[in-house]
Amino acid sequence: MNQADTNPNDPSALLEPLPGHSSLGRLERILRRGEFAVTAELNPPDSANPQDVYERAAIFDGWVDGINAVDASGANAHMSSVGICALLTRMGYAPIMQISCRDKNRIAIQGDVLGASAMGVQNILCLTGDGVQAGDQPGAKPVFDLDCMSLLETIRIMRDNSKFLSGRKLTSPPTVFLGAAINPFAPPQDFRVHRLAKKIAAGAQFVQSQYCYDVPMFRNYMQQVVPEHGNIRNYMQQVRDMGLDKECFILCGVGPLASARTARWMRSNVPGVHIPDTIIERLEGAKDQKAEGKRICIDIINEVKEIEGVSGIHVMAYRQEEFVAEIVHESGVLKGRRPWTKEPTSMDEMVAARMEEILEEPKHLLHEMAGAASEPDTQE
C-alpha cells in the first residue's frame, strides 16, 4: 500500500519539523512515522556515463527509502558521491550522500554540503574514511582535516546555526538529515555504545551498521561484559538503557554472501566484519551457494527486525544488486508498504520550463532563418 506522507494529528497539515530535523526527506519521514526503513548501497561505477548510475539505481525502484552514494569506498577512485547524487536527484531518487574525510579538507567539504543540499540531497552520511593504504593508489596524500565526529558537528552547525565553521553567516543553511556509521562487531567492545553516544552528541540522527552475519553478536554486542553488573549485557539493551534509540534511528547492515570463498575473504580482509563458521559451513553445504547466501541474508533480516530499538536495515549487496528486491520482498520487512518511487522536487518545474525554452529555441531560429530567406534582396 502506498501510504501518504501525513501528519498523524491533522491529515491536512504538513509534518511538523522536530528540533534538528529539518530535511523532511523521505527517509526521515519514514523513520519519524515509525515505519521499518530500508536503504541500499549503489556500487559506484568506474565510468563517466550517467546511464551506468541510472541502470544501477533502477534496480532499487519501489523497494528502498534511500540510496547510499558511496564516496571512494576502500580508498579507490570511482565516480564521486557528489556526481552520483547530482544524477540521482535529477531523476527524483532520495540519495544518502556519503562524505569521507580522507580526501578533502573542511573548506571543500562545507562547499560540497551546500552544493548537495542545493541539488536536493536531504541525507548525508559522515565517515572518517579508510586509509589510502587500503586502496590501489597507496601513494595518494591523505587529508583527514576532520574526522567523523567533527564532520557531524560541522554540518550540524551549518544547518542549525546557519554559519560556517569560521563563523561567517549562511544566507540559506543546508536542510539535511545527518547520519553516521557504526560497527558493533569491532573491538574494543566495551566502548562501542559510548562511541555511538558521542556520534549522536555530535549530530547523528541515524546510523547504519557494518554487515551483520551474527545476530547473537549484534544482540549481545560481542557478548560485552559490564563489570559493575558482573554479567553479559545486551548491546541493544544498553542502547535502550542510555536512551540512544530515542535520539537516533539505528539501521542494521545486511547483505547476501556470494559464496563460502567470499565469506572467508570478507572475514579476513574487511575490518569489523565477523562471519561465524556456521554461516560458512551452511554455504559450503548448499548446492547453490549464491542462492543460499541470499536465504541467509533474509533469515538475518527476520531476526534483526524483531530486536527492539532497530529502526530499519541497510542492504549492501555488492555486485548482487539484482537480489535487493527479492531480499526485501521475501523478508516481509515492508509489511505491505511500498516505498516512495521517484518524487518531483521544487526545482522540477523550473527545469522543465527551461527545457521547453531550450527545445523551442531551434524552432524559433529556423522560423527566423526562413523568414529572412523569403525577404527580397533590395541591394543592387
UniProtKB/TrEMBL annotation:
User: GO molecular function terms here?
Assistant: FAD binding; methylenetetrahydrofolate reductase (NADH) activity
Query: Quick one: where's region Disordered?
Result: 1-20
- Pfam families xrefs: MTHFR
Biological process (GO) annotations held by this record are:
methionine biosynthetic process; tetrahydrofolate interconversion
State the reactions this protein catalyses.
(6S)-5-methyl-5,6,7,8-tetrahydrofolate + NAD(+) = (6R)-5,10-methylene-5,6,7,8-tetrahydrofolate + NADH + H(+)
Q: Give yes or no: UniProt keyword Oxidoreductase.
A: yes
List, separated by semicolons, the cofactors it needs: FAD
Matches recorded under InterPro entries: FAD-linked_oxidoreductase-like, Mehydrof_redctse-like
Q: Which GO terms describe its cellular component?
A: cytosol
> Which pathway, metabolic or otherwise, does it act in?
One-carbon metabolism; tetrahydrofolate interconversion; Amino-acid biosynthesis; L-methionine biosynthesis via de novo pathway
Keywords of the record = FAD, Flavoprotein, Oxidoreductase
In what ranges is there compositional bias, type Polar residues?
1-10
Family statement: Belongs to the methylenetetrahydrofolate reductase family.
Q: What is this protein called?
A: Methylenetetrahydrofolate reductase
This protein's species is Hoeflea phototrophica (strain DSM 17068 / NCIMB 14078 / DFL-43)
